[in-house]
Amino acid sequence: MPTQDTVGRLMRLVKILRILGKRDRVAVRDLANEFSVTPRTVHRDLRFLKEAGFKITRVGQGVYTAGGDQLEGLGFMEDEELAFVIASKRLVRRLLPGLERKVDDLLEGIGEGRYPPVHISADIPQVLSNRAQKTMRSLLSYISARCEVSFEYKGTKRMVEPYKLAYLKGFWYLLGKDSRDHKIKAYAVDRIDQLSPSGRRFGAVPPGLEEEIQRLYAPYLGDSVRERIVVRVDSGVAHYFKRKKFDPTQTIEEELETGDLIVSFMAVNTEPVKNFVIKPWLPHLVVLRPKELREEILAEMEEWVKKERDASV
Fold it and tell me: In the prediction, which pLDDT does 98 show?
């Protein structure tokens, strides 16, 4: 979840970018005075914007300029939209350098009735395989073309209207509507296999979809949640869970006489809790519910044990 400092810095970057769009030249000293920060902070901000792909050029000692053509059209954006563009461009350039052009093309449509294709909630890099990067590239194309896709996911064939790529708690997800039950769901990009277009196009994104997607990834942003995950933590490591929250939604429900803890988490997509909390603490905790998550982890552990045994032969 973005901190108050992160949000404050993004809004300062928005204002700096707007100033660069209005003035031919901007002095670092003037920006520092305007925002009550040090010149060093301003230099870091300018470097951040350059790393996000904005062409900012040093034209003198502590004086910078930006190409006017690249900043045209930013005036119609709200501050929050422009902050989204800055964060998205920089993160995509860092994590997926081969996709900058596609993301830039999609971002140009913001403010013209098109739907923002990427959501960023935290700057925690996930290294994607070449296959997953190819999947990302294809998904961006299908989102842009509003083309329904089919793919294998956890052993099941899915037909999905792709709406947005979201970077949540260190993982990339596709957010889209499942054609079977017409619900908005999240799919981990690195677990999508055999991706292809179905041949069916969908129309304009339905009204109210933004609010629905907000509810979907709310657990990652600290808002309302949907599913409850309950685990029992062994007494030997219980003090760690008392001292620290390993997930923003972590709640200690009960401390048993044995010293074990009953701990709950709330999530729509169980992948982050499974990967960031449960697996790192195995075998010191057990999943009480949901049953499906317990069986999924057990199957993964059995597969790992089999691979280890095969490798030792």
Answer: 56
